[in-house]
UniProtKB/TrEMBL annotation:
<feature type="transmembrane region" description="Helical">
    <location>
        <begin position="75"/>
        <end position="93"/>
    </location>
</feature>
<feature type="transmembrane region" description="Helical">
    <location>
        <begin position="99"/>
        <end position="123"/>
    </location>
</feature>
<feature type="region of interest" description="Disordered">
    <location>
        <begin position="134"/>
        <end position="174"/>
    </location>
</feature>
<protein>
    <submittedName>
        <fullName>Uncharacterized membrane protein YhaH (DUF805 family)</fullName>
    </submittedName>
</protein>
<dbReference type="InterPro" id="IPR008523">
    <property type="entry name" value="DUF805"/>
</dbReference>
<keyword id="KW-0472">Membrane</keyword>
<keyword id="KW-1133">Transmembrane helix</keyword>
<keyword id="KW-0812">Transmembrane</keyword>
<dbReference type="Pfam" id="PF05656">
    <property type="entry name" value="DUF805"/>
</dbReference>
<feature type="transmembrane region" description="Helical">
    <location>
        <begin position="38"/>
        <end position="63"/>
    </location>
</feature>
<dbReference type="GO" id="GO:0005886">
    <property type="term" value="C:plasma membrane"/>
</dbReference>
Length: 174
């Protein structure tokens, strides 16, 4: 709700150009050149944008790390999937144009970006409980044992979680 409120306020403070909340804004905080064009007149819009960017990045990183945990990977994988491509994008205009190492670094960053996108968006999570918790889908997976018949790796059982409450509309008995 707070993020939605910041979007509404940003529409009012944006003027003709407006502004948006995106991942690139977090990397502008590390760029000293982005501070040179700041003025006191744009301070309210800057504060709204800073709050909105913080909330956006917090949700983005939390969901991405939760997805990495579903894939049985550490949250530190966000460094090559998120931080390195973002920093390269922010500071790419300061690198020399015709250099083989810049082209190689750009290619490596592109591969990391695509790999992270495939890892987070397309590959399924583990079907078994991993070190970060159970399968979030909660399905029961049955595997055939060699000599013991079927074995069940049970997920969440909905029937054991139901709590029946009597339908009484009066006050509790004293």
């Amino acid at each position: 709700m707070l993020f939605l409120a910041l979007l509404v306020v940003s529409a009012g403070l944006g003027g003709k150009n407006g502004f948006s909340f995106n991942v690139d804004d977090i990397f502008r905080a590390f760029d000293p050149d982005s501070y040179r064009s700041l003025s006191w007149a744009g301070l309210p819009a800057l504060l709204v944008k800073a709050c909105g960017t913080f909330l956006f990045v917090w949700v983005y990183i939390a969901v991405s790390i939760k997805r990495l945990h579903d894939r049985d990977k550490s949250g530190w994988w966000m460094v090559p999937f998120f931080a390195i491509p973002g920093l390269m994008s922010q500071f790419s205009d300061r690198l020399p144009d015709e250099s083989y190492w810049v082209v190689a670094a750009g290619l490596i960053v592109f591969v990391l970006y695509v790999w992270g996108f495939i890892e987070l968006a397309f590959l399924p999570g583990t079907r078994y409980p991993n070190r970060y918790g159970p399968n979030p889908l909660g399905k029961t997976h049955v595997r055939q044992g060699r000599d013991r018949g079927s074995r069940s790796a049970r997920g969440w059982d909905q029937q054991s979680e139901l709590d029946t409450v009597p339908h009484k509309a009066g006050p509790p008995a004293v």
